[in-house]
Amino acid sequence: MPKCQVVNPEDVRKSSRIEFTPIPINQYNKSIKDELKRNSKEDLIRIQRDMVIIRTFENMLNEIKLRGSYMGVEYTHKGPAHLSIGQEAAAVGQAYHLGIDDHIFGSHRSHGEILAKSLSAIEKLDDKTLMQVMENYFDGQCLKIVEKDAEGAVKDLAIDFLIYGTLAEIFGREAGLNKGMGGSMHAFFPPFGVYPNNAIVGGSCDISVGAALFKKVNKKPGIVISNIGDASSSCGPVWEGLCFATMDQFKKLWDESHRGGLPLIINFYNNFYGMGGQPKGETMGFGILARLGAGINPEQMHAERVDGYNPLAVADAIARKRDILENGDGPVLLDTITYRYSGHSPSDQSSYREKSEIEAWQEHDPAVHFAKELVKANVCDDSTIDKLWQYAKELVVKACKKAVDLTLSPRADLMKQNNLLEQIMYSNQNIDSMEPDRKPDVLIPAVEENPRIKSLASRSRSAFDKNGQRLKDTRCIGVRDAIFEAIIDRFYTDPTLVAYGEENRDWGGAFAVYRGLTEALPYHRLFNSPIAEAAIAGTAVGYALEGGRVLIELMYCDFLGRAGDEVFNQMCKWQSMSGGLLKMPLVMRVSVGSKYGAQHSQDWTALCTHIPGLKVVFPATPYDAKGLMYSALKGTDPVIFFESQRLYGYPEEFVQGGVPKDAYEVPFGEPAIRKEGTDLTILTIGAALYRALDAVKELEEKYGISCEVIDARSMVPFNYDKVTESVKKTRKILLASDACERGSFLHTMASTINTLAFDELDAPPVVLGARNWITPSDEMEDAFFPYPADFIDTVHEHILPLKGYKTKRDCSCSELIRRNRLAI
Ligand SMILES: Cc1ncc(C[n+]2csc(CCOP(=O)(O)OP(=O)(O)O)c2C)c(N)n1
Ligand SMILES: [Mg+2]
Known about the structure:
This protein is of the alpha/beta class and about 800 residues long. Helix 4 (about 90-95) runs parallel beside helix 14 (about 310-325) and helix 8 (about 155-170) crosses helix 17 (about 380-405). Magnesium ion binds next to loops.
């Protein structure tokens, strides 16, 4: 417990200084002769072969992009091809000692890494396993295309499979490694340990930290390597990833069987350029990238600069660093220098560098230089090297012919109903445990013995007593408790489930939802993260796509911007970009505040609902909070789980009998009718439900308007049937939430209702949201959020004039025009 880590003023006020240890730079100094003592000749020739295959593959892509043909094969490729010509030695050297349990994550420039890692895996796997991999991968779709004219051994077939599968993916064909849904910048192949490559610069950093976390928490074999570019070293998520990866708690607070650093190498492929900007000397101040490790932790992340123009220097570094990781002393930072002769993309004119610089690096070309060394050391002769180039050319041409052929390699037909993307955007599974054969690690053997569960036993599960009398909220199970009940139950069911975020452990979660969990769970299942929203979300993505289930919390919805890329580009996309291979069992709790002013009170449901690939729910009652949390934590899709801070203490007042003690699921997408009525439908999202009900009281009592109230509960997915049924009856609908009106998801709902029920409507669906202002402080909030009077004003002005009613605030059409003109 951190409480035992006393912060002693005597210690921290003492005078002293920090000593740094020297950071090794290109210290490798072995000759081929030395290397022959630990590597066979065949292995060294294979290193050359793999560099040659990658070079040939990328030369082919360059030709296709620039000239539309390669060795007589004509093709126009409209998509990207960010080539790494010149960087092959770094990729091949890295892959040399890696096995399939070692997972690499990469960037937009990763063709070389995919091929190098896979070629290394093919070499290490036996024929039977290789055949199984190919036969099982998407039902052998890719295999069927390459095996027709296969010659030679199973390993040759596997290489054909790899080259064709990668190229077919780059060309967007359904037989590609990810069914053509990833493409050049995102392609990957998990069976060989090649994990997602990311077109967002630095995007792989925090994701790979999460992958390493998964391995650590669940004691899985292998290490994780994050391959990112030198220019990504400035990215916020990279820094957040570094901070998360080096948290002291791994080595100091986790229980003994889980203690130790993450099995992770953050490897910067340092080619000295971003697109055109130069990190060293221009856009950064580190001088030598490896220096970054020195600032991160006392181990300096075992940082080192490695010569990526010598494959054996890189292989040597990976072997040495793996020892460090296996001793629990990771993570490691590598600065692997390399250079690309190719442009950032084929259209790049290289206006930012001198031709002489490129030529100088070509003088050191590893594909040529390493071959010479091999010949010099009598490992092979020139003809062996020549044959490798010839072999690679034939291999690539063969794959290319197949990949460009639309009859042999069709694209997925996305025009038809129930097409590939419709099927893979969500995995839509319901799985109790991601590892049913393993027992969850817990500190209290049975849930019932949990002190909070025990204390909740004395509370009423409903807002009302036996006689229907309303009880004090403090005597009832509230939303906060209901969420807790679902979560703790899941922790006792799914051993892979972990929860983390800021102040999640001893504090009890930002709003005490987790109080009682700390006692029940060891550190590795519930922990405080650094204040690093991007890394919280990004690591969760990595954890989930490795096969674990993860629950994260962002204290306030307003902090979502800090995790923007991870939510809007990562967690929502990898299921589809994998071609349906990966699942993303990830639940992100986000609370919507009030009372705290402009930066702590926003409802950003619209941002999340806008992004394809996320599921978005917002319970307003304890019954729903518990049932929806169950569904979320049994599902296999990323869920943004909105909660309202206004409602944490609210008891169950709608469902008879209150919140069930046992497990139950509230299915996503089904709105709940909270009150039936005949004259007007009011649909709400989140906490606005209760203010709507107050307004309804007045509308019914004073004006005799019978209202039907629908609580959306879920936004994505959403079944409109109940709403259109209701509108058919009432012919009018008002939609309300606490989100700012402009761009609110309610407008999407209103327009859909218009489309679906235009003929049944007597008035347009009208949206009532918060004002398009900053949220003012608590004392003025009633001018901002929709209150009962605003509901009634809106009904009177736009839907159904109320006899004798005068609006409290002007919400007329001319007022709407004025506000819009002024952007308020
Ligand atoms: C977040 C983000 N910003 C900008 C870009 C555009 N972009 C693509 S590659 C690149 C340079 C990346 O340089 P580095 O990380 O060193 O990788 P390299 O291209 O050298 O392999 C930029 C700026 C992007 N894809 N993502
Ligand atoms: Mg770079």
